[in-house]
Amino acid sequence: MKPIICIAPAPAVEPMFFNDGWMVNKKYYLGVTAGGGVPVMATDIELAEEYARLCDGLILTGSAMYMPSPEYAAQAKAIEKQKRDPQDAQLFYAFQKAGKPVLGICRGQQNINVFLGGTLAKKFKLTDGVEHLMRKHEIVAEPGSLICELFGETFITNSRHNNRIDQLADGLKVTARSHDGVIEAVEHKSEPIYAVQWHPERMRGDLPDPFDGPDTTILFQKFSEICLAHKK
């Protein structure tokens, strides 16, 4: 039996009439499917507990990119502030309460840290003097961690973020960092909660980003296995 994996969407704006809605980058769906799961998009914050009951795991996705026009981007960002974090929070707490696995990706990692009591450093390049947007870099994984098990102690990832974890939530442990000290992966100390700061959904398929990184399909495969192991 394949695990059903709930994917938290990002806000979207229909460009002709500026109606608001939700979207998921197709690469998330392809990653889940390649990993042996069945993807389902969450679309209603009021149904968070139902998604947690019906699905076997949750993926909190990264932020979306808004390109068509400044007006489109501005409205989408406004919707994101109003809807995105509250919906992610409701989904996260519902799946956590149900004891079901959660995987955070980029913004998803940041939100998990906040939901568990941690803090973020926003636009950290202005204070730290390091750039992590539209880059690639090497990261170092902690021995014994899930990330190290899958990809080894050092490997290359993409980097697409302006914010980073600052104060780590008490329940989490760091499982990978970049050479400049940015937290690149975390795991919960006792619950099936995992997160990465990069975008594994982009590091697989015909045009992996970056081309010299590992094939991260195995991360989605492992998450599917974890979801099945926790299936009730």
Describe the fold and architecture.
This protein has helices spanning 26-34, 48-54, 70-97, 107-115, 125-128, 146-151, 217-229; strands at 4-8, 10-14, 19-23, 38-41, 57-60, 102-105, 120-121, 133-141, 154-160, 164-165, 172-178, 183-188, 193-196. The chain has 232 residues and is of the alpha/beta class. The mean pLDDT is 92.
Short summary of the structure?
The protein is an alpha/beta fold and 232 residues long.
For the structure shown, list the relevant keywords.
single chain, 232 residues, alpha/beta, nine-stranded mixed beta sheet, two-stranded antiparallel sheet, 7 helices, 13 strands, globular
Structural class: alpha/beta
N→C terminal distance: 13 Å
Across the major sheet, the strand order is 4-1-5-6-13-12-11-8-9
What is the typical, i.e. mean, pLDDT? 92
Reported for the largest beta sheet, the result is: 9 strands, mixed
Report the order of strands and helices: EEEHEHEHEHEHEHEEEEEH
Approximately how much beta-strand content do the residues carry? 25-35%
Fraction of residues in H or I helices? 25-40%
Number of strands: 13
**Unreliable sequence segments:** none
Morphology:
globular
Total count of helical runs of at least 4 residues: 7
**Radius of gyration from the CA trace?**
17 Å
How is the secondary structure organized here?
Blueprint: E1 4-8, E2 10-14, E3 19-23, H1 26-34, E4 38-41, H2 48-54, E5 57-60, H3 70-97, E6 102-105, H4 107-115, E7 120-121, H5 125-128, E8 133-141, H6 146-151, E9 154-160, E10 164-165, E11 172-178, E12 183-188, E13 193-196, H7 217-229
Helix pairs in contact: 1-7, 2-3, 3-4
